Amino acid sequence: MLVPTLAATAALFTTSAHAWGAAGHEIVATIAEIHLHPPVLAFLRSDSSLIPDYAKGHLAPIATWPDRIRMVPEYRGWSGQLHYGSWDGDHPPQVCSWPGTGDGTDDEGGKGRWHSDNDVIHAVANYTSRLETNPHDWESLRFLVHFLGDIHQPLHLTSRERGGNGDPVLWEGRRTNLHSLWDGLLIARALREHSNYTSPLPSQQIESALMGRIYDPYIRLLLWEGVRTWWRTSLPGWFTCSPSSSALSPSPTPPHPAQLVLGAGPAKATVCPVTWATETHKTTCEMGFPDGYDEHGAPVEAGGKSEFYRRIRDSLTVERLLTQAGLRLAATLNTVLGPVAAAAADEAGLDGRMHEGVLNLSWLEEAEREAW
């Protein structure tokens, strides 16, 4: 068995203001890959600009590209701000403001106001639309894979202290900040605590997407226990713009310009970054900071023995957010690329039929059929 070196393991969780860190983004992309309809995955693999040769047919290796190119001249400056929210007056946990339609009538506390459309919410809508227009737009694909992870990271959905980078805490006695804690430290701790699922699952659909990484057992856990049991009844609501709706069908076009509703062909889904970001921001306010947090006081302990950490662990908050991001990314790609992927398969004389629904859940159906 290959044992990751200390340097390689540390690199996966190096955050430096990058949402979820490398491991988190790769986990999201791997979950998405597992749930792509076969023609969509085949379409992505058929174009080396979409999934380059070094990725060996996987989505995970391209998931961190937007972080790696931030300082490249043609991306410097403008691309960095797309990783975060962009509105005024938000300072959780004391003040939680959220933008509405822009007229100030439905903002949380009347304080939220968009001050730029160069943010992660608008970026998800923009790059989804661009990829729908040009399915071979490799840049839009890479940004979309990354930003759908960002939109589920609580400290990327607040405008205070540069997303928590200026909010000091202690992690098991060592000084860090809340952004780094959410980016990688919580995931690293989860990998240590969830040490089961080291053996392959009976599902080839799942195992073929894994790349022999340190987080493979964690992905198995998120699917085998999370999707099958923990969130089974909640899944339909993860793919609608209306939190109260249980139907897997597109909602009416909402008024907000960043809310993008798509749905065509056999894979019908709703791509709604405002709704998803609203859910994450609620988590930011409720779970993102230790109780009574004061950035001007002495840093408080937020590690494994703290009530703050236990609340996150026991509620499976990180696990839910990563899984939501991965499944929503899959649903988005299945919706946007489904029609062109089916046409390409038919033209090549291959089976272009899609599985029913917004996700390829064949592994779940097989597990129930075979009583695994």
Automatic annotation (TrEMBL):
Pfam family for this entry, one: S1-P1_nuclease
GO MF annotation: an example:
endonuclease activity
Q: What keywords sit in the KW lines?
A: Disulfide bond, Endonuclease, Glycoprotein, Hydrolase, Metal-binding, Nuclease, Signal
| Gene3D superfamilies with a match to the protein in the record | P1 Nuclease
Listed under GO biological process in this entry are: DNA catabolic process
**Tagged with keyword Phosphoprotein:** no
Q: How far does the signal peptide extend, from start to end residue?
A: 1-19
InterPro entries linked: PLipase_C/P1_nuclease_dom_sf (IPR008947), S1/P1nuclease (IPR003154)
The similarity annotation says: Belongs to the nuclease type I family.
Task: State the name under which the record lists this protein.
Answer: S1/P1 nuclease
Source organism per UniProt: Rhodotorula graminis (strain WP1)
